[in-house]
Amino acid sequence: MEFSSGRKRVIDELTRGRELIDHLRIMLNGGGGGALEQPLAEGLVDKILDTFNESLSILSSTESDEVSQVPAMNFDGRKSEGSGESCKTSLPKDRRGRYKRRRTSETWTKDTPTLYEDGHAWRKYGQKVILNAQHPRSYLRCTHKYDQGCQASKQVQKIQDDPPLYRTTYHGLHTCKNLFKPFQIIMDSTARDSSLILSFGSSPEPVSSAMEINRSFSSADYFMPPSDHLTAAFSSGADHGDVISSDIYSCTASTHSMETDMMVESLFDSLPEL
DNA sequence: CCGATTTGACCGAA
DNA sequence: TTCGGTCAAATCGG
């Protein structure tokens, strides 16, 4: 994101927050409010929190490539159960202003022939039919969104049938500490010499979600300067740099995740002698 | 009981 | 208005 546009957005958000606070003050000072205005006030508080969260998010993504340490405040579905009085009509609750569209955060995608096990615990929160697509898209967020404020989420969609192909789109980085399944390095004795299998989790079919790696890659291939595009290529071929496209795993270095870190660490730990 | 999933309604950007 | 992302009540299941 351009710095100037990020700055403008922060100013806009903060300005809006200030106006909302003014509203709230008038509402609270004006007296007479009482139960009637309570839900309205709560809506305002939510909106104010949202503007500040957005600002912090913009600032942290503008000033540094590192993930924001600012945990987004939960807008968990707290309901304003007033005392007694509640309309029991099936009228839906007013959710306006309860959530914002996805923040502009970095995303990266991965296509795999099977559902991709990335070692994290996910919780599905929605599924949508997508126009001109034959398969629905699933929406998942990190299980630890609320207990650890982890903002990571992903979408999964089957994008091809015959050789099945699933596309996983990640948003945000894991700030949680819980890795659901450990990575495994498997020596594959049947493979061409000098290749290893890096497998995720202990799923019944580890190989299908595995990436093959070749020890001929040097560490320089993995440790790129921040904000450069990082392409970690894992070739199963014998030739140096003979990369098979389906074996390429890539993401932007600035968003490179714990998965990537662990992948790289595990990789070099497991290579006997380079 | 409690956390995960399903599913239709709701929200907001385009 | 349409469409895709999110919410949350109902439901599932260990």
UniProtKB/TrEMBL annotation:
It comes from the Eukaryota. It is found in: Nucleus. Residues 111-174 form the WRKY domain. Coiled coil: none annotated. One of its GO terms (molecular function) is DNA binding. Residues 63-106 are annotated as: Disordered. Its main location: nucleus. Gene3D superfamilies: WRKY domain (2.20.25.80). GO terms for cellular component: nucleus. Pfam families: WRKY. Keywords: DNA-binding, Nucleus, Transcription, Transcription regulation. PANTHER family: WRKY TRANSCRIPTION FACTOR 21-RELATED. This is WRKY transcription factor 70.
